[in-house]
Amino acid sequence: MPSADRTTVLHPRDVRTELAVLIRSRYPILWVVSWEEERVEAALTRISAERRKRFVCWSVTRGFHEATEPPGLRRTPPAQQGNVAEVLAALDEIVKQVEPALYLFKDLHPFLSDPVVVRKLRDLAAYLKSSPKTLILCSPSRSIPPDLEKDITVVDFGLPTLEELGQMLDTIVSEVSTQGRLHIDLSGAVREKLLQAALGLTLKEAENAFARTLVEHERLTDSEVACILNEKKQVIQKSGILEYHDAQDHLDDVGGMQNLKDWVRKRSVAFSDEARRFGLPPPRGVLLLGVQGCGKSLAARAISLVWRLPLLRLDVGRIFSSFIGSSEENARKAMSTAESLAPSLLWIDEIEKAFAGGTGSGEVDAGTTSRIFGTFLTWLQEKTAPVFVVATANNIRSLPPELLRKGRFDEIFFVDLPGAQERAEIFDIHLRRRNRDPQHFDLARLAALADGFSGSEIEQAVVSALYDSFDARHDLQEADLERSVTQSVPLSRTMHEELTELRHWARSRTRPATVVEIPENPQPGDEAFPTGNRVAPAYG
User: Fold this and answer.
1) CA-wise closest residue to 478 among 464, 460, 465, 459
2) At what angle do helices 455-471 and 478-487 cross, to 10 degrees?
3) Range of the domain at 170
4) Which residue, 182, 276, 449, 510, is most buried by CB atoms nearer than 10 A?
């Protein structure tokens, strides 16, 4: 039966079913993408037993060996290991054998740069179509030469499910239960929390995390969930593309943005089983547009804390590589990593810089940016894993129009400069952070003086005033704050024309993050931005 180039991402139990179907259908060459060779071997061992086929493994260090053979034994002489001739001989051996069999070749991808090996695989694929034998390639990366794309079927072998993790956890507990000094509490809710925390890890990583927790703390309770999450940080660090952030900012640390806060709070339980039973789909993401320094990144971090989701920051610059095809592979790796840790929050800061010119990059980088952008758009539209995406942007002109289409994000919020009431709230937040009582200051007057200031500019004004008061050897006074504010020139004055244009664009295309309405025709003589007296219409 002819094969096709396709990628299948399935529940591990469904992966075993899919592999069995592909083997029965005589797909000649399968490429299983997985770090977990032991789980792949276990699945193929079961399939081979069901189909009454021999199961043989091959690696460059051990040559051919039975799947149950101890790793200390080797069949291939050391002098022949690691060369192309041995690989070709191993592939010829598949043809020589007549009995039905599954052949698992581990980490063959480094040899696929050799055209002779590629040609041999193409010949073998044509032979295996009418043979009761199947060749399975297993490696953690997917680097298929174009010549083999139509002969190889790709199957992504998913990470362990809660059921598999639960079986592994029960095994660990049974092994250590005889040690009386250990305190283990695996009541229903605790067990669920521990397993949810381990979701997204390989079996080995999860086993290491549980074992380390038992060694360090001599207990396994819901208090150790944070220890399991630390193992996820290692997964992110090893990926080299995503960054794991410990969210410490709450929504109360964000001044203003009441519409955005209400939107976030209503969806705070969207990832629960109760929400799924009610028929609610998990939220997909938000795009935060607006003026620099107005708290877009702060809001992204606050959402992560409120929803108790791992916060993953995507540095798009790390995706791009000088090697052909590596950039696209890095993009897929970043998305699959985010999905493996789901439910999670993926934060893309200043997305317009990442994909500037994404639809017309052919003359600059041979279309690499365009391909990555297309992959990202498709993933945003089609992803089923509960990965909530928060993207921020400052320059609307650089945003490709495809990104703004409905379906990519649940909502597009415009983050304007704070009004008078919000500026007072921001002064309150930053004074409290620096152990000052806001009641000792006239916040309304300070907010009026800081007309047109962004949240970050207000913060810097407070910091500057603290430096002045420290230099003068007295505690912070309102006069210090007033002087610091009046000496600062906000961006809203320096770039008045650009910000006015941005606000005009946002008026009919986005939802305001604050309760402040954008004026229809701001004039140069007007207050830089509204003071909060104008209230935006209600949103459902």
Assistant:
1) 465
2) 120
3) 162-239
4) 510
pLDDT at 529 over 60: no
Q: What does pLDDT average to over the chain?
A: 81
DSSP 317: G
What is the token pair recorded at 106? 């581990």
Note whether 471 and 456 are same-domain residues: yes
Is 497 within a domain?
Answer: no
Q: Encode pLDDT of 140-190 as tens digits.
A: 888 889 999 899 999 988 888 888 888 888 888 888 776 667 777 777 777
DSSP letters for 139-170: ESS----GGGTTTEEEEEEPPP-HHHHHHHHH
> β-pairing, 311-314 with 242-245?
antiparallel
Phi, psi for residue 68 in degrees, rounded to 5: -90, 0
Three-point CA angle 82, 83, 85, nearest 5°: 135
Query: Where does a domain end: 157, 185, 206?
Result: 157
Q: Is the pTM of this model over 0.70?
A: no
Is 538 domain-assigned? Answer: no
Mean pLDDT over 375-393 rounds to: 87
Two tokens, residue 388:
């909530």
The radius of gyration computed from the CA coordinates of the chain, to the nearest angstrom, equals 29
Residue 265 above 70 pLDDT?
yes
Question: Is residue 528, in this structure, part of any structural domain at all?
Answer: no
What percent of the residues of the chain are helix, what percent strand, and what percent coil, each to the nearest 5? 50, 15, 35
Place of tokens 């969806």: 267
Q: Is 293 left (phi over 0), alpha (psi -120 to 50) or beta?
A: left
pLDDT top residue among 424 and 164? 424
| CA-to-CA separations, 402 to 2, 358, 370, 398, in angstroms, rounded | 36, 10, 12, 12
10 Å Cβ neighbour count for 359? Answer: 15
Instruction: Over range 245-255, report the average pLDDT.
Output: 81
Across 117-126, average pLDDT: 94
CA distances from 39 to 16, 57, 138, 164 (A): 10, 14, 11, 10
